[in-house]
Amino acid sequence: MGFATATAVSSDGPGSWKAEIVDGWDIGSRANGGYMLAIVARAMASDLDRPDPVTITAHYLAPGPAGPVRVTTSVVRSGRRFATARGRLVADDRVSLEVLGTFGDLSEPSDAPTLVRVEPPSMPPVEECIPLEPVPGQALPPPFMGRVEIRLHPDDARFSEGGASGIPRIRGWFRLRENEPIDTLALLCAVDALPPTAFNARLPLGWTPTVELTAHIRARPAAGWLRCAFTTNYVTNGFLEEDGVIWDSTDTLVAQSRQLALVPRG
Amino acid sequence: MGFATATAVSSDGPGSWKAEIVDGWDIGSRANGGYMLAIVARAMASDLDRPDPVTITAHYLAPGPAGPVRVTTSVVRSGRRFATARGRLVADDRVSLEVLGTFGDLSEPSDAPTLVRVEPPSMPPVEECIPLEPVPGQALPPPFMGRVEIRLHPDDARFSEGGASGIPRIRGWFRLRENEPIDTLALLCAVDALPPTAFNARLPLGWTPTVELTAHIRARPAAGWLRCAFTTNYVTNGFLEEDGVIWDSTDTLVAQSRQLALVPRG
């Protein structure tokens, strides 16, 4: 089952949607955060009748188990250029995600001035990068990696064999399986798809649960592999941020993301 | 009138609050975005009974004119360590801000491991930096600058005399007037207080309205001046981000912020 199907929503009355967290989009039986956000965003986009999440924030309140879920949406304001809504994903009667987003239509490129101060991440060709594939009977890489295609930068890929780079950074190529087209909703999955940056830090770090994730979608991606880079600069006071940039095959910045995650106590 | 008074809220029934956008906290008759966010955050903190906004996001939907406003709050989830709420500021029957935040208590420092990859911004001493003070009868610097105290890094301070640095960056010292203590709500004002980074870019940029602002509050600030640095890496497709870091007088990272703003068409 592809991404579009696995994030489908069906209207169930005004502002109410039925959806399903599909088995296999999980990491240690918790649905991937970006995947769940994409489900909510699809309902919000539909309610607002605007295709593209320009800026969207999710607060993660409870894990999303596989199975049927309910999404609710509520339009806050619908303007000429942008429209804003709230969204919520409820699984097993618990709020898993609370979302706030502003949507628009990114089909028309802007003629505003441009300035790019940081170039796309430098990466070896896809075929020289390291695939992340789930192995039956093994917890890692997680099942989610079978739903997307990731090729890690070789310098960032050896954390599981005791070869953490020492730099809390993960770079990789991303696409959907079967080369399914990546729209701006699928970018919400891409911003949370790579392994945590903390895996490459030489710190006694375990799992780092996401408190909040914000994505800015800058443009609709062209066909082809995406280049992604995630970096952490500050692990302080029990928190860390993970900053992401995603570039498409035409060297266009398509998304920027930041998440706040918790550092397990040492 | 100090910051705490200018952001006061009074309960007006469950989840309903009266407040006032105080004249003088504006930039060209629009209330400063961080100041308005602090009003809503104060109501959310009160509703949740948690003092510190750990991560908070505001979408800016309409300008907030000076005068009485209504704030509504709604608790989404109250957990052991964190609690999440929605907030809204309504002025003149229009939603000005829609907010989503997770709050906690940052009074106890964490014993989790620490890693700092980017040092605090290097700044000349306060007395060698350039004060921003409003001038009666002049639009710039705006009245808001009379409510806070800002000293800009000399390299970043000459944009108004045709001396833009060419780097979309603004660094400066920040404190409240009368040396009023800066709590974590006042940090929400600090993350949006300095002039736009775009003023230092050599681009035909005018006013850059904020679509969305997210702040991560990492720690309660110690007494004294704060060092702030805001940087823009990508002005693309009509959007720009402004990334901020704020450090306190003990070299502790107290806040990180990012806002998405619109680039006026060239």
Overview of the molecule:
The structure is a homodimer. With about 270 residues, chain A is mostly beta strands. In chain A, about 10% of the residues lie in helices and about 40% in strands. Chain A has helices at about 5, 35-50, 185-190; strands at about 10, 15-20, 25, 30, 50-60, 65-80, 85-90, 95-105, 115, 130, 150, 170-175, 210-215, 225-230, 235, 240-245, 255-260. In chain A, the strands form two sheets. In chain A, strands 1, 2, 5, 6, 7, 8, 10, 11, 12, 13, 14, 15, 16 and 17 form a 14-stranded antiparallel β-sheet that branches. A two-stranded antiparallel sheet of chain A has the order 3-4. In chain A, strand 15 (about 235) and strand 16 (about 240-245) form a beta hairpin. In chain A, helix 2 runs antiparallel to helix 3 (about 185-190). The first copy, chain A, is globular, with a radius of gyration of 18 Å. Chains A and B meet through strand 5, strand 7, strand 8, strand 9 and strand 13 of A and strand 5, strand 7, strand 8, strand 9 and strand 13 of B. Strand 9 (about 115) of chain A pairs antiparallel with strand 15 (about 235) of chain B, so a sheet runs across the interface.
Summarize the structure.
The structure is a homodimer of 266-residue chains. Chain A has 266 residues and is mostly beta strands.
Please render the helix and strand layout as text.
The structure is a homodimer of 266-residue chains.
Chain A: H1 3-6, E1 9-11, E2 16-21, E3 26-27, E4 30-31, H2 33-48, E5 52-60, E6 67-78, E7 83-91, E8 94-104, E9 115-116, E10 130-131, E11 148-152, E12 169-176, H3 184-190, E13 210-217, E14 226-231, E15 234-236, E16 239-247, E17 253-262
Helix pairs in contact in A: 2-3
